[in-house]
Amino acid sequence: MTRAGAAFVLAAILSCSITPLIRWIAITCGFLDRPDGKLKRHPAPVPYLGGVAVFISFVLSLVVFGEARNLGWLLLAGSFVLVVGLIDDLLHLDPWSKLGGQAVAVGAMLYALGTYELELLPLSLKLGVSFVWLLSVTNAFNLVDNMDGLAAGVGMVGAVILAGVALSSGAATATLALAALGGSLLGFLRYNFSPATIFMGDAGSNFIGLMLGALSLHRGVTHEPLGLLVPALVLGLPLADMSFVILVRSGRGASIMHGSPDHVALRLRQRGFTTRQTVCASYLGAAVFGALGVSVGLVNSITAAVIVAAILLILCVALPWIATRDRLPM
């Protein structure tokens, strides 16, 4: 616990110190996210590359605490999706190319590490479920990064709660890595919270999503025999938002691969909430999902199944209702 707390603090300090330098580099090189009057409605250009600051802070923290070698393949896959995201930020990849890059990183990591923590499933299903899980979480955080401080804060909440779950199971490496990731995001929020002076970009959201998805597959987090139920609930807010967006876009015949203002957070802002109010409400929602995830890990399998079934029923009723009753202009 002491090491995890120290890693969290160190990562936060590093991120808070490195982010201004990365911001200066982005401005100097002209790496700016310019408003387009459509999906990008910030009042002035904002520098990219914030995800690089999170990445550097995270890796340096792992190096200081001697865990980088234990997570070598994870960091290699994270570096790859970071680069794919950077290319997308600067050159605007088409959606399928970006998804292909993510799939390469996920596939290579699974091939090298054999991340098959789902004990109740046969090997073939373990691979498939792990692959879909990692791609889903990566893209969920990519999609939820649509407002100042949203993805970073939701990611921090998820990382801290998952670190607590891993700590309770005695999973030292996963605990420290998740704590370091949470600290890196907290330090970055100093500059990314509304009004943001730097964005993490696709590089950052891809990296955060993959790290959370992969670390949540650790045996100390999955709480066998419940499998992915605990992390799926802890990371439930971005996953639910992604499901909602897919549902809305599919319902009106639009491509699920292209951006639209259908996200729950954007709908709240459309309803009159300020950006800060919307983001803070999202943090609270992420904490509620996290509490549900922790509770599932503490009860017996039957009770856990009832909790999960109730949540799914609520989402299956609520999300389609919102989608049909609250349409936003394109």
**Overall average pLDDT:** 85
Radius of gyration: 19 Å
- Total separate domains: 1
Beta-strand residue fraction: under 5%
Q: What gross morphology would you assign?
A: globular
- Biggest sheet layout: 2 strands, antiparallel
Fraction of residues in H or I helices: over 70%
Strand order of the largest sheet: 1-2
| H/I helix tally | 14
Order of helices and strands: HEEHHHHHHHHHHHHH
Measured between the Cα atoms of the first and last residue, the distance is 48 Å
The number of E-state strands comes to 2
| Category from helices, strands and their pairing | mainly alpha
Low-confidence stretches: none
Fold and architecture overview:
Helix content is 73%, strand content 1%. The protein has a two-stranded antiparallel sheet. It is built from 14 helices and 2 strands. The chain has one domain (2-325). With 330 residues, it is an all-alpha fold. The chain is globular and about 50 Å long. Helix 6 packs parallel to helix 8. It starts with a helix and ends in a 5-residue tail after the last helix.
